[in-house]
Amino acid sequence: MSKKPLILGIETSCDETAASVITENDQGKPIILSNIVSSQTDVHKEFGGVVPELAARSHIEKIDLIVKKALNESGIKIKDIDAVASTAGPGLIVCLSVGLSFGKAFASSINKPFIAVNHLEGHALSPKLVSNLNYPYLLLLISGGHSQYLNVQGLGKYKRLGTTIDDALGEAFDKTAKLLGIEFPGGPQIELWAEKGDPNSYDLPKPIINKGGCNLSFAGLKTAILKISKTIETEQEKFNLAASFQKTIEEILKKKTKIAFNEFEKQNDIQDKIFVVAGGVAANKKIRSMLINLCKENNYQSVFPPIEICGDNAAMIAMVGLEKYKLKLFNKLDHPAKPRWPLDENALFLKGAGVKL
Ligand code: KG4
Ligand code: ZN
């Protein structure tokens, strides 16, 4: 029996310091040996968002410990690691630099290959950690920094079908939460408040709902919420606004996902249609159940990573590392941190979308 690859993954692109060791079994199914995530929520909550310098400092303080924990928990010896994979972008440059430098130094010290990983590719491949997934598939990536529909054709092969032209969906959840007085990141709390409110209380706008293919836009929604939030007084009104926001998001995603289905089918002549939803917002149960139903109606198999690997983690970075390792796709130690690194390099850079592409 040949030795199975052991990959150390490292993630520090934003406000999670994470390390993980994965391998695979004889059938090629990935096995997570450890997956340590240390969140910096407490560092940033008083500022209402991630402060890059504080995030980088916290990564520097914790990276040694987190990698050590991941190695200890995995039960493997350092010398048995076959490759080190670190997130190289997109993300905050001061944060990326910490995990990238650490990963390069680690790989070099044990004389093993180094692999630079695109964080978005990590989210895109995250379901492969737990389920068999064949290419091509349609991916909806919804997180704090990104919102896009992608035709995933293989490792490193992506066609972007649609993207946000302003805010990311997680950002819209967090900004709404902030206006309602919920601490950052408020997405999960909005979901809980929405359960206690009447979703039909407020008629909120659905920007570009009837144009732009499957592009998304949430900035106008945020402005509407800002206006309404100034008029509400009771707790129940807050619950009602959260419920109306949640409902509006579901309606936007339902309409745009149907368009993405059509686009995906135009580009792929296949019988087995697969729809994957990944990123932090994929943890939202109501969005999940709406999309699962939509898949049933349209003959798609729906795939959601388990909640614990929806948010940022290093197992998904190690997963990309594992696939690249098997293809011997290694990187040199001078590989730069790339704050902007779209999965589809040919996709248009939409003005106003910043690094979210
Ligand atoms: O993927 P992720 O951990 O980090 C990024 O790469 O951005 O996503 C974090 C985002 C945050 O905006 C957070 O509020 C949102 O995902 N989020 C949720 C839920 N859980 C996390 N949004 C809505 N409902 C949730 N249950
Ligand atoms: Zn992410």
Features:
357 residues, alpha/beta, 2 domains, five-stranded mixed sheet, 10 helices, 19% strand, binds 5'-O-[(R)-(carboxyoxy)(hydroxy)phosphoryl]adenosine
Describe the structure.
Helix 3 links the parallel strand 4 and strand 5 (114-118). The protein is an alpha/beta fold and 357 residues long. The chain has helices at 41-44, 52-74, 93-109, 119-125, 169-179, 187-195, 219-229, 235-267, 285-297, 315-326, and strands at 7-11, 16-24, 30-39, 83-89, 114-118, 137-142, 147-154, 157-163, 273-278, 300-303. Helices cover 39% and strands 19% of the residues. It is built from ten helices and ten strands. The relative contact order is 0.18. The model is unreliable at 351-357 (pLDDT under 50). The strands form two sheets. The protein has a five-stranded mixed beta sheet, sandwiched between helices. Strands 8-7-6-9-10 form a five-stranded mixed beta sheet. The chain folds into two domains: 7-128 and 309-326, Nucleotidyltransferase, domain 5 (2-Layer Sandwich); 135-304, Nucleotidyltransferase, domain 5. The structure holds 5'-O-[(R)-(carboxyoxy)(hydroxy)phosphoryl]adenosine (KG4) and zinc ion. Zinc ion (ZN) binds at residues 119, 123, 143, 279, 312.
Indicate the topology.
Blueprint: E1 7-11, E2 16-24, E3 30-39, H1 41-44, H2 52-74, E4 83-89, H3 93-109, E5 114-118, H4 119-125, E6 137-142, E7 147-154, E8 157-163, H5 169-179, H6 187-195, H7 219-229, H8 235-267, E9 273-278, H9 285-297, E10 300-303, H10 315-326
Parallel strand pairs: 1-4, 4-5, 6-9, 9-10
Antiparallel strand pairs: 1-2, 2-3, 6-7, 7-8
Helix pairs in contact: 2-3, 4-10, 5-6, 5-7, 6-8, 8-9
The protein binds 5'-O-[(R)-(carboxyoxy)(hydroxy)phosphoryl]adenosine and zinc ion.
Zinc ion binds at residues 119, 123, 143, 279, 312.
